[in-house]
Amino acid sequence: MSSGPLNWDQYLAHAALTDIGMRRANNQDSYAVVMADTMEGWFERGHIFMVADGMGAHAAGELASKLAVDGIPFLYHKYRDQSPPEALQRAIIETNAEINRRGKANSDFYNMGTTCSVLLLVPQGAVVAHIGDSRVYRVRGDVLEQLTFDHSMVWEMRAAGSLPEDGDLARSIPKNVITRSLGPHVNVQVDVEGPFPLEAGDTFLVCSDGLTGQVEDDELGAILANLPPQEAAQVLVDLANLRGGPDNITVVIAKVMSPQISTAATRPEPLTVGGDKEGRAVHPGMWIGVGVCFLAALVLWMVTTPLVGLLAAVAGVIVLGIALLMQFGGGRGGIALGTGKRLGRGPYVNVQCAAGDAFVKKLTEIVNRLRESVVERQLNIDWGNFNHACERAAEAQQHGHSKDAVREYCRAISTMMQELRARNKKKASDSSVL
Ligand code: CA
């Protein structure tokens, strides 16, 4: 692996997209993708992918999420002397304080807040830092896992055992009530998860609830597993919009393309946490002990035999040596993370997401409704690409190739949505028929 500017696409493909949705007047979501410039830079500090979903009156939500996606990567890179999980946590805590300060300083921004989901990819694996109900997922093979815990009323009550699954109570709690966010309070508790070792093919998704409110986990997984990141990002946004798009939608996808950057291949030094580079303060008792030993040595030398005094002096030197080592000797090494030892309690959700017949059927219905709605309104659009994708999908379905069918139906959806956007943004956003 060479140094110098690096095109990451062959190792790690990524895509990011944010969309206002169909109902909102402004987009309060923000995202950041900060890639290392070189392989060495990646080994040291990794790549950052993050989503922040702002909340607050007028422009406050937009400002809060913008402060998060600007401040956190900047501060993370500033604290190079700390291990990546600790630098990330500190960056978030300090950014929280800054958002809080700005919220208090100007009544327009009073009580502004934002969610914050950060995916940090380092050679040791995926490290996730998270507050709120945006989410980080990983798809490996046919399994989708949610690596983050939603800080929402529903999830917190369920975790506390006070919310029966699928009961009326669960349905009555609004999904958008969140219990933790950046900004409203001076202090914030950050969930840190990982590292989850990287394997070739692993696909990560960081997204706001504008996506997950409209698209089910198994659908997310089937799309992420079968489409390249750029196409997957677009069709996820399209699906959320076709289902009403009630909220802003933000999608950031990162996919490990090469086994060369898998954790097994790079064999990095383990990440450590709880280390103490500055050395720690020595308990005053140690210094008192040193004094007592030397005083005893002096007294014993004078009143008994020099040999006993010498023994006490040796003890004093040993205690002094230990105290000096503790004070200046570089501190503790910390806890090494890795096999069997990681931060957090994730993954919190694990679902099978094979591209099966049921999902193909669902996509077929969406495509058919889309076609009918366009025909009904007599919109003048170019049907070529849409029809070709539909034909390929139907053929794949006939031959039992569900994955190809999913891919082609998704392409049909995105093609049509693009046509509609290009033709007339206003009409594309009128999804009442769908
Ligand atoms: Ca939202």
Verbal overview:
The chain is α+β, with helices and mostly antiparallel strands. The protein folds into three domains: 8-273 and 340-352, 4-Layer Sandwich (Phosphatase 2c, domain 1), CATH 3.60.40; 284-329; 357-424. It is built from 15 helices and 14 strands. Strand 5 and strand 6 (125-131) form a beta hairpin. Helix 2 runs antiparallel to helix 3 (84-105), helix 7 (217-226) packs antiparallel against helix 8 (229-242) and helix 12 packs parallel to helix 14 (402-423). It is elongated and about 110 Å long. The structure holds calcium ion. The site of calcium ion has 6 residues, from helix 6.
Strand-helix topology:
Layout: E1 12-19, E2 29-34, H1 39-45, E3 47-55, H2 60-78, H3 84-105, E4 113-114, E5 116-122, E6 125-131, E7 135-140, E8 143-146, H4 153-159, H5 168-172, E9 191-196, E10 203-207, H6 209-212, H7 217-226, H8 229-242, E11 249-256, H9 263-266, E12 272-273, H10 284-303, H11 306-328, E13 335-336, E14 349-352, H12 357-376, H13 384-398, H14 402-423, H15 425-429
Antiparallel strand pairs: 1-11, 2-3, 3-4, 3-5, 5-6, 6-9, 7-8, 7-10, 8-14, 10-11, 12-13
Helix pairs in contact: 2-3, 7-8, 8-14, 10-11, 12-14, 13-14
The structure holds calcium ion.
Residues 53, 208-210, 247-248 line the site of calcium ion.
